[in-house]
Amino acid sequence: MKRMFLFFIQIAIINLVNAQTVHIPDTNFKTYLVGNSAINTNGDTEIQLSEAGAFTGTIDCGNLNITNLTGIEAFVNLTKLWCYNNQLTSLNISQNTALIDLRCDENWLTKLDVSKNTALKILMCHINQLTVLDVSKNTTLKDLRCYENQLANLDVSSNVALERLDCALNFLVNLDISQNTILKELTCGWNQLKKLNLKNGNNAALQVMLAKGNPNLSCIQVDNVANSNAYSNWAKDAIASYNTDCNYMSVNESNKTKITLYPNPVKDILNFSEEVSDVKITDISGKTVKQVANSSKNINVENLPKGIYIVSFKTKSGNVVSQKLIKD
Q: How many other C-beta atoms lie within 10 A of the C-beta of residue 44?
């Protein structure tokens, strides 16, 4: 009886210890945390809930081939999370409400919810697979880098503290920074922009503006045309001009048919959902790497190096369209 009693006592102690430790299934992530003396303050082989809750510094676990960040939810007072260049396909930071700096770039994230992270000032989520990014709750955000994703929409009207925005290499059609009066740097090139409103009453603060690679953008709305043309660090396509009123509201695009590229990413044959002509492929530096003038529903891109490109083409109705292409 005494032995059985001791056995149950041991089981209870083990369960109590397990209940007080953080579940961290990814070996690489756990190795990093256990090896960090600022986190693992008692020097054992586990991370206690008390240790995680007490930590207020930076978790820098980039470049560690981590596939799962489960356990991060226990770090409720964490202020900086740098998990860049890993193999993450999901990231739950809903419990990390003290975060001011999140760098989860160069992963495989398809969605990212930052609605609970209202203290964020820096968000770097570039080079992922995001199709949606809602930053409406992040009103203190100063630096947003979301380039090289698959975003079709981006609303930054609530981000009045924003100073830097890099949203290049997405599928954006419309971008409005009229509420971002202290923005200093904007990079929005190689999208599918048809509307770009820079008119915020303080264009003089916008030290860098790069909007090249948007062949469907003919008018950019600004504070002052002469000043915009004179800014040395502003760059646009030759087809685009600056205007104080682009009359965007009168543009009717409802009857235009979206042409699909597939597969994308592509290895050899790139198909179009309908016949197109004057196909031009450029790399991210703007260099033309392939041109096909004849009408066709597919082209061979097998000889292109792996990377990200912009494909421009003319539809049957005469519209020039550009889309992002990923070459495997």
A: 11
Q: Which amino acid would we find at residue 160?
A: V
**Residue type at 23?**
H
Q: How many CA atoms lie within 13 A of 266 on its CB side?
A: 22
Tokens coding 237: 């396509």
Q: What is the pTM of this model?
A: 0.78
Q: Which residues have CB under 8 Å from 124's CB, separation 6+? A: 84, 102, 103, 104, 105, 143, 145
Q: CA 46 to CA 23: how far, in whole Å?
A: 9
To 5 degrees, how large is the angle CA 171–CA 176–CA 182? 120
Q: Are 244 and 222 in contact (CB under 8 A)?
A: yes
The tokens of 290 are what?
């392939």
- Count CB neighbours of 139 within 10 A: 14
- Burial of residue 113 (CB within 10 Å: 0-12, 13-18, 19+) is middle
CA torsion 40→43→48→50, rounded to 10°?
A: -70
Angle at the Cα of 128 from the Cα atoms of 126 and 130, rounded to 5 degrees:
100
Per-residue pLDDT for the chain (328 aa), expressed as one digit of tens each? 555 544 444 444 444 444 599 999 999 999 999 999 999 999 999 999 999 999 999 999 999 999 999 999 999 999 999 999 999 999 999 999 999 999 999 999 999 999 999 999 999 999 999 999 999 999 999 999 999 999 999 999 999 999 999 999 999 999 999 999 999 999 999 999 999 999 999 999 999 999 999 988 999 999 999 999 999 999 999 999 999 999 875 334 433 457 888 898 899 999 989 999 999 888 866 788 999 888 889 999 999 998 888 888 888 887 777 777 888 8
Pair of tokens at residue 18? 């397990």
